[in-house]
Each structure stands twice: as structure tokens, then as C-alpha cells.
Amino acid sequence: MRVDRDAFVGSRRERWDRLDRLVREAASAEDWSRLASDYRAVCADLAEARAEGLPLDVQTYLDDLAGRAHNQLYGKRDGSARSIWYEIAAGFPRELRAQWRFFALASFLFYGPFFVGAIGALLDPTFAGIVLPEAQLTEMEEMYSDSIGRAFGGDASMAGFYVLNNVGIAFRCFATGALAGLGSVFFLIYNGLIIGTVFGYLGSVGLGGNLLEFVSGHSAWELTGVCVSGAAGLRMGWALVVTEGRTRAGSLKAAGPSLYRLVLGTAMLLVVAAAIEGFWSASPVPRVVKFVFGTVQWFIVGAWLFFGGRR
Questions:
Q1: Which range among 68-72, 200-204, 213-217, 289-293 shows the weakest confidence by mean pLDDT?
Q2: Which of 280, 282, 279 is nearest to 156 (CA)?
Q3: Which of 186, 202, 288, 301 is most enclosed, with most CB atoms within 10 A?
Q4: Are residues 66 and 91 in the same domain?
Q5: Of the candidates 25, 46, 74, which is a domain's last residue?
Q6: What is the extent of the structural domain holding 56?
Q7: Do the beta carbons of residue 158 and residue 277 sit within 8 Å?
Q8: Are 301 and 222 within 8 A, CB to CB?
Q9: 163, 274 in Cβ contact below 8 A?
Q10: Predicted confidence band of residue 77 (pLDDT cuts 50, 70, 90)
């Protein structure tokens, strides 16, 4: 008995449309798993369409769809600069949106203690001394006692220093996610509280403007990078705890593409932050210009994370 074309297409159209979308937009580990499953099903549909002698347009469509899915799954993955740049520009923001729950939780764990520290240090003179040693607070006062501004001679070396410093913070937020995510939780809270307390304390002694002048240009990139690294750590911890029937190693492997994109995006955020911090933040540019520049950076980061990879 010959298969009816409309019935054949109608019963499978939803799966074909989903595979077509995944070929173009697969981002998370779940997307790739679904893509592989739908690819196998479409191959079976193509074989059935040929065996039943369905119209050529159906066979051609399925042949093209299966071919594109095959290339996406098994095509060569190169390490070229173009490929890596695409992952940063499009793959990373798409992945971050797919993992928005982890990013939202990481942001809450960082900014919640940040504001607690900032408000506590502003309202209570003894609060900062509880969180940080008095010697460190005195050092902070001396560091920001004068208006920020220096010559450009040591910018390259300072940028290198900031790269190492930022990567160290982000690495702890990410790598300790291997402890079922608890390490990431701790370091997000810890860093948020420390940074917030510094802001509040310097604001309470009249040096908040100098600190804001210095951090305004790079804070959008640096603070977002810390939150993304924390989200990656939480995602890793989740994969180790919620394995969905896999072994822990298998679950971590399935999360690998997601973690790769999040870490790659974190690296980009922190490198840009270090470059701005080294070449711009302490430069002798008027304070108002730095504030405007910093505001623009928040818009740039927000637009990248929201619109990147949507085509």
C-alpha cells in the first residue's frame, strides 16, 4: 500500500522544522543531543520516502536536511581564528542566554553581597573593619587619595598584570565548581562582599569619586566576566550532581560544549577589561569623559550578550 504524501509530511513536519532550526542555532548540550537524535530520525524518513517512491520534492528536501545536519554534527571543527572569533561573537552570547538561570544565580550571588558590603560600609564605620584588615583599608585609602592619572609609559606591563589578576579571580570562580558548585558559590559571595565593601568604605571617607573614576571604564567587562565564570562553575557543578542517568564523566562530557563557550566568553571579557584597565582607566583623561566611556561600555556588553548570535 502506497504511503500518502500529505500524511507522511504532516506526521513528521514538526520534527523536520525542529532539526532545521537546530542545524542553524544549536547552542547548548541539550540542543546538540536533540540534533543528533532528529538527524537519525530524518535519515530513516529519507530511506522510507525513497522506498515508497514519494514525490521528488520530498526526497530532495529530506536529502538536503539530512546532509546539512550531518555536516553540522560531523563536519571538521577547526581551530582557526575565524572559527574561534565566531564562537566568541555568536556562540558565547547564545550559550549564555541558553544558560540564563546559572548566569542569573551567579549574578545574584555576586551583586547581592556586593550591595550588602557597599551599604554596610557606608552606613556603619565599623563594618569595613570586620570584613577587611585595617592595614588593607589604609592601603586602599592611600592608593585612591589622589585623583587618578598617570603617563602611558607602563600601560602594557599594567595590562599584563591585570590579565593575570582577573584570570585568577575568574579561575577560582569556575574551577571550584567541580566541588558540586559550592566553590563557585563561595567565591562569588566572597568577591562580591570584598569589592562592595571597598566601594562603600572609600565612599564613606570621601574617596569614592576617585575609585569610580578608575573602575568606570572596565567594570562592565570585568564584573560581567566574573559572573559568567561563576555561571560556568555552577553549570559544571550541576552536570556533576544532576547526571540524568549518565555517569558523572559522561554528564560532564555532555556539558563540555556549553562550558567551552562560557569559558571562551569569560576570557574575552577579562582580556578586554584588562586592556581598558591598563591603557585607559588610570590615564590622565578628564573624569567626566571616563564616566561617559564607562556608560557606553555597559551598553556594548549588554548589546553583545542580548543580540549576539540571534541571526
A1: 68-72
A2: 279
A3: 202
A4: no
A5: 74
A6: 5-74
A7: yes
A8: no
A9: yes
A10: low
